């Protein structure tokens, strides 16, 4: 159930930064002011506690969320911040196929349910992640050959059992995750190889049958900017819409890396999906760097977090932002990208980093 993650966030074309100096200076002033408020401490703020990221996002009709994972939920200070700062959570692993159908036809929703119950207690909405993906599949599924007829039945049953179980409990599903290669060709997954490209439309239709109301998404990384991979989604979305296949949105994971450049066409890209009548969401945001983290790198990271927040706020149909967990303590990055990390807005001691203050400023 491990995965090779080497290409997340790698560049598909050269990026040129387009932000003006004025904007950056304004931003810096805002961040400094926020830091000042933070260090002058509770006295200055005693009368009313500062709004959370969720509060600020809600003023724009957006959510601000975090991924979380079951093993972390014993960490009380972590859990307290997770419950207070965000209005949306995504299970990092608990709803994946290996966890939910560990034996063929034997379903186990304990991990996902734990996250859903936590979300309910904290008045948060939940993104379902994910139904169809080539990674973290159970051994019974990958360990043998399937005919198309067999695999279709297995896939349909998996999708419909899980979607039915979480009906009314999740607001959106990442129905198919990571379906394309960097060059915009279909990824040769077990589903593609056995069923052909039609598996995507089928998956969406099966999910819709099982929950008529939930928002259905396709989700991927390296599709933040305009390029061959996001073009593939744009073309597929157009076709699916023309065929009246139920598709509500495109999830842009946004696993960015300082060393690969900022996707400056993000806002234009969000807009072109909106023009197809689709929602978009930034679903798994983190901005990693080559360690050690320096003040400069953390400042650049803060600016990127603000820039992507601006981009989402600029496009009405960008419905929200989710960080892929909120603290470096529980980030997946160090385990998957050697020598990299410090990708999230809170550090390993749960202290807010410059990125946190920059997001706040952008949301004001
Ligand atoms: C990651 C989890 O965070 C890790 O705990 C796990 O070991 C591997 O998967 N894209 C996705 C997410 O869609 O499901 C991945 O999550 C990160 C990349």
For CATH, the homologous superfamily is named as Glycosidases
**Can you list the ligands bound to this structure?**
(3S,4R)-3-hydroxy-2-oxopiperidin-4-yl beta-D-xylopyranoside
Sequence of strands across the biggest β-sheet: 1-2-3-4-5-6-8-9
Q: How many strands, which pairing sense, and closed or not: the largest β-sheet? A: 8 strands, parallel, barrel
How many individual domains? 1
CATH architecture: Alpha-Beta Barrel
Strand tally: 10
Shape: globular
Query: Any idea of the CATH class?
Result: Alpha Beta
CATH topology: TIM Barrel
Radius of gyration: 20 Å
Helix fraction?
40-55%
Order of helices and strands: HHHEHEHHEHHEHHEHEEHEHEHEH
Strand proportion, as a percent range, falls in 15-25%
> How many helix segments?
15
Backbone structural class: alpha/beta
Q: Which blocks of ≥5 consecutive residues have pLDDT under 50?
A: 1-6, 11-23, 35-45
Signal peptide: 1-46
Keywords: Carbohydrate metabolism, Glycosidase, Hydrolase, Polysaccharide degradation, Secreted, Signal, Xylan degradation
InterPro entries: GH (IPR017853), GH10 (IPR044846), GH10_dom (IPR001000)
Catalytic activity: Endohydrolysis of (1->4)-beta-D-xylosidic linkages in xylans
Describe it for me?
- This protein has 364 residues and is an alpha/beta fold.
- The chain has one domain (19-363): Glycosidases (TIM Barrel, Alpha-Beta Barrel), CATH 3.20.20.
- It is 42% helix and 16% strand.
- It has helices at residues 21-40, 42-45, 53-58, 76-85, 97-100, 110-121, 139-142, 148-165, 190-195, 199-210, 228-242, 266-274, 295-314, 333-336, 354-363, and strands at 63-68, 88-91, 125-132, 172-177, 215-220, 249-252, 255-257, 279-290, 318-323, 340-341.
- Strands 1-2-3-4-5-6-8-9 form an eight-stranded parallel barrel, surrounded by five helices.
- Helix 4 links the parallel strand 1 and strand 2 (88-91).
- Helix 8 (148-165) packs parallel to helix 10.
- The longest helix has 20 residues, at 21-40.
- The protein is globular, with a radius of gyration of 20 Å.
- Mean pLDDT is 92; it is low at 1-6, 11-23 and 35-45.
- (3S,4R)-3-hydroxy-2-oxopiperidin-4-yl beta-D-xylopyranoside binds at residues 3, 92-93, 177, 253, 284, 332.
């Amino acid at each position: 159930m491990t995965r090779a993650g080497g290409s997340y966030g790698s560049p598909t074309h050269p990026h040129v930064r387009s932000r003006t100096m004025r904007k950056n200076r304004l931003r810096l002033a805002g961040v400094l002011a926020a830091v000042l408020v933070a260090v002058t401490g509770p006295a200055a703020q005693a009368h009313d506690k500062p709004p959370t990221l969720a509060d600020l996002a809600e003023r724009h009709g957006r959510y601000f969320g975090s991924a979380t994972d079951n093993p972390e939920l014993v960490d009380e200070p972590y859990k307290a911040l997770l419950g207070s700062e965000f209005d949306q959570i995504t299970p990092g692993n608990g709803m994946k196929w290996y966890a939910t159908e560990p034996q063929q036809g034997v379903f186990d929703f304990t991990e996902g349910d734990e996250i859903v119950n936590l979300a309910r207690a904290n008045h948060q909405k939940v993104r379902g992640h994910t139904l169809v993906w080539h990674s973290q599949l159970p051994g019974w599924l990958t360990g043998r050959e399937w005919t198309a007829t067999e695999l279709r039945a297995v896939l349909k049953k998996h999708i419909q059992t899980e979607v039915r179980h979480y009906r009314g409990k999740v607001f959106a599903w990442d129905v198919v995750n990571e379906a394309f290669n960097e060059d915009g060709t279909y990824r040769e997954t077990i589903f593609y190889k056995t069923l052909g490209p039609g598996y995507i439309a089928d998956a969406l239709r099966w999910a819709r049958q099982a929950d008529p109301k939930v928002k259905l998404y396709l989700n991927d990384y390296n599709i933040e900017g305009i390029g061959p991979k996001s073009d593939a989604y744009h073309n597929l979305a157009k076709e699916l819409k023309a065929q009246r296949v139920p598709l509500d949105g495109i999830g842009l994971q946004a696993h960015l890396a300082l060393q690969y450049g900022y996707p400056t066409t993000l806002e234009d890209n969000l807009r072109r999906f909106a023009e197809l009548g689709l929602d978009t969401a930034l679903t798994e945001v983190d901005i990693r760097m080559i360690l050690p983290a320096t003040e400069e790198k953390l400042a650049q990271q803060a600016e990127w977090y603000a820039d992507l927040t601006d981009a989402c706020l600029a496009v009405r149909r960008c419905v929200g932002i989710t960080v892929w967990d909120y603290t470096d303590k529980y980030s997946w990055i160090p385990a998957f990208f050697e020598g990299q990390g410090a990708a999230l807005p809170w550090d390993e001691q749960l202290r807010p980093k410059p990125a946190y203050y920059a997001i706040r400023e952008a949301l004001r």
